[in-house]
Design a protein that fits this description.
- By secondary structure, the protein is mainly α.
- Helix content is about 60%, strand content about 0%.
- Helix 2 packs across helix 5 and helix 4 crosses helix 5.
- The longest helix is centred in the N-terminal third of the chain and has 21 residues.
Length: about 100
């Protein structure tokens, strides 16, 4: 019985690893690590993920403008969310993840 449970757990772990490996440049992970503190709470006026009214006028500027603002900073939005160790690609993936529910 114990063996069977262990086998089931191992199978579940393998599935979890496979699922996350399939996500590209992991925008969700970057968001959780570098952006959530402001973009989930609205701290300092940050647009909250999933808030259509807050994002509509921003999305209208075009995704490239949003990428640039996320990478270089925009008013109270710090460059790369203040995490200069992130690559541009990682920041772009996080932007994609952030606007995905509203576009
Ligand atoms: C310290 C808080 C803070 C963190 C951390 C942060 N942001 Fe922001 N972000 C803001 C604020 C505040 C604004 C609104 C700026 C404005 O419109 O004046 C903003 C705006 C934005 C915008 C919209 C820019 C535009 O042109 O309208 C994007 C895209 C964005 N952030 C992406 C990110 C990403 C991606 C991360 C993580 C890598 C991140 N932010 C981390 C505070 C933060």
């Amino acid at each position: 019985m114990t063996k069977m449970i262990a086998a089931l757990l191992a199978g579940a772990a393998t599935l979890a690893v496979t699922a996350s490996a399939q996500a590209e440049a992991d925008g969700e992970a970057v968001y959780n690590q570098a952006c959530m503190a402001c973009h989930m709470t609205g701290a300092a006026g940050a647009p909250i993920r999933g808030d259509e009214a807050a994002w509509a006028p921003r999305v209208e500027k075009g995704i490239d403008t949003l990428y640039t603002h996320a990478i270089e900073g925009f008013n109270a939005m710090p460059p790369k969310g203040g995490q200069m160790g992130l690559s541009d690609e990682e920041v772009k993936a996080a932007v994609d993840f952030m606007v995905e529910p509203v576009i």
